[in-house]
Amino acid sequence: MRKITLKIDGMMCGMCESHINDAVRSAFRVKKVTSSHSRGETVIIAEEDIPEAELKKAIDATGYQMISAASEPYEKKGLFSKFSK
């Protein structure tokens, strides 16, 4: 699993967050996507890494601008996660 954090310019409200989330969901197979206009970022949880160029193309098509992307391994943390190993 991968956690991909995007810095997005141009989000002003909850509807902007929704537009970004919908664009990501329709363009890629993701487990979860959340956006925050106040932080100016979108966090994507996916099985595999998504190429930065493809992310930029999908985000830029919505009228917002992707400034940067960072990818890191993701481990689900929860109440029972330490027992599942």
Please tag this protein with its features.
2 helices, 4 strands
Quick overview of this protein structure:
This protein is α+β, with helices and mostly antiparallel strands.
3D structure, described in words:
The protein is of the alpha+beta class and 85 residues long. It contains two helices and four strands. The protein has helices at residues 14-27, 52-60; strands spanning 2-9, 32-36, 41-46, 65-73. The mean pLDDT is 92.
Task: Show the helix and strand layout.
Blueprint: E1 2-9, H1 14-27, E2 32-36, E3 41-46, H2 52-60, E4 65-73
Antiparallel strand pairs: 1-3, 1-4, 2-3
Helix/strand structural class: alpha+beta
Please indicate the percent range of residues in DSSP E strands (runs of 2 or more): 25-35%
Low-confidence stretches: none
Main pleated sheet: 4 strands, antiparallel
What distance separates the N and C termini? 16 Å
Strand order of the largest sheet: 2-3-1-4
Averaging pLDDT over every residue, what do you get? Answer: 92
Helix content: 25-40%
* Helix-strand pattern: EHEEHE
* Alpha-carbon Rg, integer: 13 Å
Shape: globular
Helix run count: 2
Number of beta strands: 4
